[in-house]
Structures are given as C-alpha cells and as structure tokens.
Amino acid sequence: MELSEHIKTANVEDVTLRRPFHPALRGTLCVTSHHLLFSDRKDEASWQLLILLKNIDAIEKSVENLFGYPRAMGSSGTITIKCKDLLVLQLEIPGMEECLNIASSIEALSSLESVTEMYPFFYRPSHLTLNGPWGLSSTEQYYKQTERLWDRWRVSTVNSDYSVCPSYPSAVIVPREVDDDKLIRSARFRQGGRFPVLSYCHHRNGMVIMRSSQPLTGANKKRCKEDELLLQAVIDGSELGYIIDLRSAQQAQQARMTGGGFESKSFYSHWKRIHRHHERGKIVQESLIKLVEACSDPSHSVDRWLSKLENSKWLSHVHSALSTAGLVVECVERDGHSVLVHGSEGTDNTLLVSSLAQLILDPASRTVTGFLCLLEREWIQAGHPFQQRCAHSAYSHARLKQECPIFLLLLDCVWQVWRQFPLALEFSEALLLRLAQEVYASNYGTFLCNSEQERCAAGVKENTHCLFQSLLRPDIEEQYLNPLYEPTDLAIWPSVHPQSLQLWTGLFLRWTEYAQNMEEAREEVWSIVKEHHEQAGPDRTNNTLSTHCDTLTPFENLMDELTIL
Amino acid sequence: MEHIRMPKVENVRLVDRSSSRRIKVGTLYLTATHTIFVGKGSEDRCELWVLHSLVCNVVKHKASQSGYPLLIHCKNFQVMQFIISQESDCHNVYISLSRLSRPEKYEELYCFSFNPNVDKAEREHSWDFLDLKAEYSRMGLPNKLWHVTPINREYRVCDTYPADLFVPQSVTLPVIIGSSKFRSRGRFPTLSYYCKENHATICRSSQPLSGFSARCLEDEQMLQAIMKSNPGSRFMYVVDTRPKLNAMANRAAGKGYENEDNYCNIKFQFIGIENIHVMRNSQQKLIEVSALRSPSMGEFLMGLENSDWLRHIKSIMEAGIFISKAVAEEGVNVLVHCSDGWDRTAQVCSVASVLLDPYYRTLKGLMVLIEKDWVSFGHKFSHRCGHLDGEAKEVSPVIDQFLDCLWQLMEQFPCYFEYNEKFLINIHNHIYSCHYGNFICNSQKERKDLCIKEKTHSIWPHLWENKLDFMNPLFKPDQSQNQGLLRPRTAPYCFKYWRRLYNRFDRELHPRQSELDCLMTVKEETQQLEEDLALCEQKLAVLDKERAKTLYMQKGVLESKQALWSLPLDTSLANTPQDYIGGFIGGAPNLCLFGDKPKSSDADNSDQESGVADFSSHSSGEESLPSEDSVKDPDSDETGPNRA
Which 495-554 residues of chain A touch chain B by CB within 8 A? Predict the structure, then answer.
C-alpha cells in the first residue's frame, strides 16, 4: 500500500491552529506522507508549522454535527495533537468528514512500522550528501585512537555477520588473551548472546567498565568455563573486580527460574557482586506518562503536584541511575577496580549506567563530539532497541509493548550532572533537548532500528543522513554549546541527595511560560560571556572560569550501603 | 558570664552530618557571645563560631559508645552534633548553652556588645544609610493627595506604628483617631505603597472591631477618603488575608472584617493565608525533612508535601499578585489587613510591592522595603524570631516566608533581580543573629526607648559594602519588561524547595560549580577590561590629538609659539607656516590650548628653518608631558633627549 493511499483529504482551508502562548491562527492544513503542514494564509508573512507525523504520539478528535444543518455549514471538528516532544496542539477543522479523514491519515501515517518507509529515507537536504562514512566513529577507530587499550585488548570481529550476538555491532573490544572461540561460548551463556565486552577503559589507572547481559545459569546453576575465563582475563591477575547487577538480589534469584541468573561467587571468585535495583520497561514508561500528566495539569494544588511528582517515580529513577553510576565510578576511580555492569538483557539500564559512569569519569566524553561519540558507541552501536523503546512517548493510549524511555532518562541524568557542574560539560541543555526530540521523531537515520544488524539490513547507512554528523558539521550551532565550559580532568561526582535532584523543567515544562524566562536567562549568559570574549579573547575567559571549580570531592557514603551477596 | 558553667571542654568530637565517618576532634569553648569549636590537628584545623543568639535549641541525645551527643539546632538551619566524653561536661555545656541561647533581656543580645572598629560618628552615620522619607519622596509623596500626619509622633495613637504616617490630605485628625479606636491595636489604615503613574495605593491596617454589627463612622470616612484619594477609581478593594473562617471567628471576640454594606464602594475579598501557628508547624516539618540524613526521593517529596510549606508560599504569592494587579492594571486602591496587620499584611504588601516596582528588585530597594514594610510598621521581630526567652507560640517564620517568596520570584525571573540568593540568605541570617540592631524589638517605639541607634550598629551599610557578593550577573535593569509588573506563574511546579537556605550548611548537597559566581567574575573582568580599554582609548585620543597637533606644530608651530610667548619676531616667521597649512589655521585657538605642551622634537624634525627649532628647544625645557603618551610617535622620543 502506498503511503499516499492513507490520505483521503490532503488539504483543508480555514483551519484554526491553537498552540501554547500564541494567538490562534487561521490557515491551510495539509497532510503529506510524512508531515503535517499548517500555513498561515496571511500573504505578507507566511508562517508555517511543519510537524513530522512520526512526532505525533496521540490524537484526540471531537466532532460536532449540528443536527438539521447541511453538513457543509454546521459541522466542524477539533483534533488535539499530542506530540512525542510533549507539545500539544489543537486544530479546528471545518467539515466533519474532512476532520475525520485528517485524523485517520494522521493515525495511520504516524505509526508506520516499516523502517524504509520512514521519513529519514526521504529526507534529502541540499547541504548534505549521502556519500562518505556514516556516523562519527567505529569500534575499530575507537580502538585505534585509544592507545591505552593496545597492550591488553583487541578488536574481535567474531560478530561480523551478527550471528554470535544479533544486537552487538560487528566489532567489539575484548581482552587480548581471549580468542574468538571462547567468545562464542561465552555468548551462548549470555542472554541474547551479549557476552562481556569493553565499554570504557579509565585513562588514569587502566581499569575498565565491561558490560554484558545476564548469564544463563538457570535453575541448575549451570556454568561456563569460557565466560569465567573471559572475566578472569578482564581483571588480569588483580585480585578483585566488581559486578554491578542492576537487579535486586531477589530479582536475580528469580531470574534463574526463567533461565537467567547471576555470576555465583564460587565460580567467579575474584568478582564481587553488588546488587542495585533498577526499574525497567513498562514501569519506567508508565512513570513518564504519569509525570507528563502531572506537568500538564494546571489545576491542581501544590500538594497534589508533589504527590503526583512523587507518585510518578521519575525522579526516583533518576536518583537510582545516578547513584549506581556513582558507585561504578567509585569502584573504578577511587578503589581502582574493574567493573562489569549488567541487568537482564543488557540493552537498557546497563547502557544507562555505563554511559553515565563514563560521563562522570572521562573528560573526553564531556565535549560535544565526545558525548555524541559516547552515545553512538554505547547506545546506537551497542544495540539499544530505539525503535521498540521509542515507538510511543507519554501521551499514547496504545497498549504498551516494548516502550521505555531509558534514553530520555539518560538525558535527564546528564542534565542533572550539568546542573551540578555547570562548567564541566561542553554542550548545553539545548543539545539534550534536541536529542530528546530526535530520538522519537527525526529527519535522520541515527535512531532508526534496534541494532546495527537491522540498520545494515534496512540500508540505513546508505540511505539516510546521520544526525550526529549533521550536528557537528561544519560547525556546531552556538546554541548547543555551553558558554561557561571549562574542561576539568577530574571526575565530576554528582550529589544524589533528593534535595540536589530537580525536575528537568526544560524538558517537561518546555511548552509552558516557565521555560520562556529561562530562555531569556540563557541568552543573558551568552551575552555576558560574549562580551567578555570581545574584550579579552577566549584564552583569558578560560582562565577566569577555571577559578570557579570547587574542589571536586567524591560522594562518600555509597560504599557503606552496598548489598553484597 | 555567670551563665557559663564550663568555659572549655577538651576532646570534643564534631560529627559531620553528611557522613558519620568524618569526625573532627577538638576543643569546645563557651564565651559570653559565641560557642567556639577549635579542631585539633594541623592539616584539618577548623574553627567553628556560632553566635548564641542563633541557637534555636540544644538537645542531649542518648549516650552512645563514643560519648554523650549534644545536638545544637540553629535558627539559620545549621545543625551541629558534638560528642562529649564526660556526661557531666555534656550536661554543663547543655545547661549553659540553654541559658545563653535564651537571653531574658535585650541588653544581653549580641548587638549591644558587638563593637566593630568604627567611631561614633560612623556608627550614627550607618543608621542614616536608609532614609524612609527619601523612599516616600521617591514614590512621589507627599503630594496633593497624601501627606504625613503628625498624629503619631509620640506613638500615642498607635504604639506599634512608626511616627511618620501617610494619610489622605482630606482626612482630619478626629477621623484618624476615631478610625484607630475602631481597629485592633489602633492600627488605622495608612499608606504602604503609592504608584505615581496612576495614583493607586496599597494601604494597610489591622482588622476592624466590628464584631457582629458595630460600625464606626470615622473608619468608614477613612476608607472613603482613601478611595477618593485615587481620582481614577470608583471603588477600592479591602483584602482580608485571613481564611474566612478565622475572620468570622474573630467577630465573636468583637473584631472581624468590614461589612460591604457599611462602607461605600468597597469590594471585600478574603485571601486565606494561614495564621502564624500553622506556619510555625509547617516550617518545623519542613526543617525535619531538610534534615533527613539520606532520605529516598519518595520520603523527601512526601515530607515536603506534608509540610504544606510550598502551599503556604503559594497562597502568599497569590495574595501579592492579586494586589499588584489591582494596583497596576485596574488602578484601584487596596487596603490590606489581617488580624493585627503586622504579619500577613507585611508579607502581602511587600510581595505586591516587589511585583509592582522594579526598585524593590534592586539591592538598595529591598533594604528599603524591609525597613519600611517590616521594621517601621512593627513586625514583631523579637517575638517572631524568638530573640528573647519568651512565649514559644509567638515565634513564627513570617519573614522567612517573605524571603522564600522572593526567592521563588528570582527563580522564575532570573534576569529581573539585581540581587542574588546570597543576599536573601544573608539578610535571613542577620534577622536572627542579633548581630546588628535593625531587627531587635517589636516596634519603632521600643527601638527608640532602647536607644538602638545609639547603642548598636545597622546592618545595611555592612551589606552594601559587600554588595559585589550579592549581585546577580544576569540582572538586566534596562529590559523593558522589567519596568512594569512582574507576572509570576502560580502553577504548583513553579514553587520549589529552597535548598540553599534550608540545607545551607550541607555543603555536599549543592552544586560544586557555581554558574553565578563564574558569571559574576566574567562580568567583573569584562568591566575591568572595558575600563582599561576606555583608559587606553582615552590615552590614544590624547595621543591622536597630540599627533594632530604635531602635524600642526610641524607647520604651525610658530603660530602657537607666538600666542604663547608673544614673541616679537612673529611677523617674519609667522608667514612661513601659513603657507603650509592654509585653511587649517582656523584650528589655531585650539592648538593654543594645547600649545603649552608641544613636543620638543616635533618642531625639531620639521622642515622648518632653524629659528623655529630654537623655540622648540626652548619649550622642551619647560615640557612636562610624560613621554609614554607619545611612545607611538617614533619621532618624538628618539630625538627629544638628544636635544635636551
């Protein structure tokens, strides 16, 4: 079926558009295969609103048919469009039939399942070409650039045809002394074949963060010699490594009943396991839904707001993610041990924790390029199932399948880190907001599909543009930069006290007036810094900024509360 | 000193609340004014000074293995835990501190012994730093509508009001007296804020003694006069900031609220801000939440909600918004009262003023506002802040709430306030510290009787001297939006927990890097650079002039020399330059001004005949212009010395 067959009414005149903080506008509404286009009919300053249909999370329609009047005269309908970037719009459409047609087109076209029908495959801006490498870096390039890996680590292409682990990229970094056969056996022992691979090697002490999925020990406490050897090779003679299991001890036990499990002390004697409970899947998705609901209800009193905020548990998820990331950093940076992170599948919370830990530890991941590379490596290539997780956002009434806003949670955590270290990140809140938008609906192919394998099969790299490349080329837009950026080599340990964590107003209250004053403040910060640049030149600005880094001290009491099994 | 049972205890441990593992060992000293802890050890030597007047309460905890814990809660939300090894020592410190922190007489307060190194004149001058008369004249008062009544000069009509009060011109003394008799504590309606653009005012008073049916003609005339003082409006609002139920209950005690039937053209409105007791309990809960050691997200948020604190802040804010809109948008006068008119009324009037008038969003403006609406109008600082040992039920965080409202506004409007939150926190600290005399006593009269101005120092100049610390780098005073009414949002999510105040001393809770400090430094540096630049440009300009002059001098030096020395040789020599410069000669008078500073070398290198050189050489002897100003002129320096 051609996409255009979904469109029964392509154009409607005299449509009224209502959106937050703007007077209602009348104009023409137009539905295309991928967009909803509204254009103001005033000639002199024609204003257009272009919405990707994929950005539409839910629509509500109400039609009024005044009884006894001819259809053309008395009937009209209202469509409320709720976008995945949390914007809510209203369209008043004259004519009931037109209204229903538009609504059904939106419904059909906003939930396309086939990747190659999606807009990134049709997006062809004049300033970008499809030739040339796609993405910022590859495993091989990363390895080549990271000299500290050369001695003990190697790139394995055991997964080059994606048969060992369908969700891994074709190349992964593993201990040099472990051969591909061992990897294959270890993969069979891990859910989804996600055997332990290197995620990060710390520049200070060479300690590493590994990630994997859960071991398939099952009820019979199966073991896998190769898996044990692989992990042994990771710590290479040092006496201890930590396994951060992102499930409670009880959940990990229960997982054995369904074939999963955990690394038992007796077989992995040099690894100490720490359990940290993290919510996943549906619970986190519902959490987002509740939070957005609370934010968009203006009527309630302060009391109900706080209980709704609490009840959504969103900030609790932020809290756990940051605390566990902090724990990982503590193991690596302070205690000098390597860490293996996994939950069950190793495609969600695992990536969240490992990438946050890197942001805290590694100054290189705090630059714009470094951060985007981190996302590419740890989320895109590492096989976070974006298509499944981001099929719907907070407004959809569709029955939840695999949706889960883990990536949004990551962005929120990064935002919290930025709030606490306003000078430490090279990028700004605007970049995080842009990513939050792009992950749900995008002109670019970056967030399409669930894994490298799928991307390969669909020809994403050949037929779409890469968001990260376009963000960086030729020069990153000023709005994505942090004017106060002052690099520090130190780990930036965030405070995880509830008093220190805040609601990300920039995202969740983005479409309220509240956010507008913040925009003004942001501009003022820029103008102050620019003025200074003009007077002093960039070198001196950095000197001034650096005097404002308080001593960065680790948070202290995490190790006290470890639950060690 | 007689209250100090134990001036010094050795081997006391100070426990860091954020981590029980960080403990400092040292010596605890009790002085007449401070508790001092001095840590042992050379590397982490620390000193902790806590004013007795800031101590809110002292609690002995159950003995633990390590000794006898003593917990000290301060009014600025600092909490300290000491562990003392001997029970008797612990008890002695406890008894001493309990007494020291609850002085019985004003004279015991720290402000009477605080003696910075300033002379008498300077101290007296510190009290003149703020002048309320100047503030009223800034508003445009007195004018033909409002004047100062002398009626309360001796505090006879109302002993909790200031001496100088503004009332409508048309109101006679008997009306004021009659009205004051019909109001609680004699607090008759008087002006708090005047908007000179539209003549609308905020007035304040206490509740009327109306009971169920009582009337007072003078009071009705008073309100009528206030209404009429605003030529543009045909009615006025009377805002009772209490919940309706509370106001009605007051009727049974012969107090109450205005009956719309008895007063011409008033619109009566309840706002529903809770009383001081509710607020005290609410803050108590809030403090408990803020002091939780490592709460979960849920515990914290539910605790915050159960405290109701933000709900109360919201209700005060909404009252302020209502009034500010009535004044700015409707141009209508508003009379605000609660019961006595010194708590909720002060909060609401001052919040409304901040919303209305950008001046109160500046450092000086906020000082004036507090001085006017709180200090002069008799907010009972001593009672509300518990300066002296007394009725615990009188204590209430009324002014904390005002500062909290301000902070909420600053969060919403980051560019519209000249001051930053440190300023608010500092004011908060000093309201409770009794370090300065400003917030001692309950009224102007009491302060006068106690000779506060003669015996203590004023906080305001002290804050003003440190104003660089309190500046908001994002402040945009010239922004057109900042000229008018602030319209804060009151959606629940706009009200936030003020971490910097309530967790002020929990360092690990706050961002490790400060955006504001950084911006402030950047801004200061920019300013410095600009000044440097301006200076350079100035020098350059001088230099340019010098150059221009040099040019001229090279050609017209004779002219100027003639003017200067009126040399007799003029005629013969004067001809030469005129041939060179032609029309430029019109510049001669100017050049004469500068003519006293010619470069010696200028003429030297000129292609003039020798006679000219003689003049120059002569002038170089008198030359005093520093040569660095002309370093860029390659001619000048090289040859100058040779010739000199």
Answer: 495, 497-503, 505, 509, 512-514, 517-518, 520-521, 524-525, 528-529, 531-532, 535-536, 540-541, 544-545, 547-553
pLDDT at A561: 37
B605, B522 Cβ separation under 8 angstroms: no
Q: How many CB atoms neighbour CB A517 within 10 A?
A: 18
Chain A residues in contact with B297 by the CB 8 A cut-off are: 310, 313, 315-316, 318-319, 498, 501
The residues, ordered by sequence, that sit 6+ positions from B232 with a Cβ below 8 Å of its Cβ are B198, B199, B200, B331
Percentage of chain A lying above the pLDDT 70 cut? 91
B498 is in an annotated binding site: no
pTM of the model: 0.86
Are B133 and B98 in a shared domain? no
Q: How far apart are CA B190 and CA B149, in angstroms?
A: 10
- Per the structure, the count of domains in chain B is 2
Which backbone phi and psi does A324 adopt, to 5 degrees?
Answer: -70, -40
Q: Kindly state whether residues B160 and B36 are assigned to the same domain.
A: no
Is the Cβ pair A544, B525 closer than 8 Å? yes
**CA A532, CA A525: separation in Å to the nearest integer?**
11
**B575 among annotated binding-site residues:** no
Nearest partner of B461 among B118, B76, B113, B110, judged by Cα: B118
The arithmetic mean of pLDDT across residues A398-410, rounded, is 89
**Is the confidence metric ipTM above 0.85 for this complex?**
yes
Among B296, B310, B412, select the one facing A302 at the smallest CB separation. Answer: B310
Token output for A475: 């020069």
The pLDDT tens digits for A169-216 are: 999 999 999 999 999 999 999 999 999 999 999 988 889 999 999 999
Domain, as residue range, for B95:
8-102
Q: Please check whether residue B346 lies inside any domain of the structure.
A: yes
Question: What are the φ/ψ torsions at residue A88 (nearest 5 degrees)?
Answer: -120, 130
* Nearest beta carbon to residue B492 from set A300, A315, A422: A300
Domain-ending residue, one of B505, B520, B535: B520
Same domain for B412 and B469 = yes
Asked if A395 contacts A82 with a C-beta cutoff of 8 angstroms, the reply is yes
- Chain centroid, CA B471 distance in Å: 10
Tell me which chain B residue has its CA closest to the CA of residue A420.
Answer: B511
Same domain as B339, residue B413: yes
Within a domain: residue B350?
Answer: yes
User: Coil, strand, or helix at residue A94?
Assistant: strand
Chain A residue numbers with beta carbons less than 8 Å from the beta carbon of B533 are 535
From the candidate CATH numbers 3.60.40.10, 3.20.20.70, 2.30.29.30, 1.20.5.110, the one assigned to the domain spanning A3-112: 2.30.29.30
Interchain contact A129–B (C-beta under 8 A): no
Residues A251, B90: Cα–Cα separation, whole Å: 48
Answer whether A492's CB lies under 8 Å from A553's CB: no
Residues ≥6 apart with Cβ < 8 Å to B98: B58
Per DSSP, helices labelled H in B379-514 are 381-385, 398-412, 421-433, 444-449, 452-455, 459-465, 499-502
- Domain map (residue ranges) of chain A: 3-112, 139-521
How far is the CA of B501 from the CAs of A429, B387, B496, in angstroms?
A: 26, 20, 12
| pLDDT tens digits along B100-127 | 988 999 998 999 988 887 788 888 888 9
The alpha-carbon gap from A185 to the nearest alpha carbon of chain B, in Å, equals 41
The residues of B annotated with a catalytic role in the active site are: 338
B581 pLDDT higher than 70:
no
* B275 is known to lie in a ligand binding site: yes
Q: In terms of domains, do B361 and B246 share one? A: yes
Find where tokens 């009727």 sit.
Answer: B251
Residue range B448-491, pLDDT digits in tens: 999 999 999 999 999 999 999 999 999 988 766 667 899 998 98
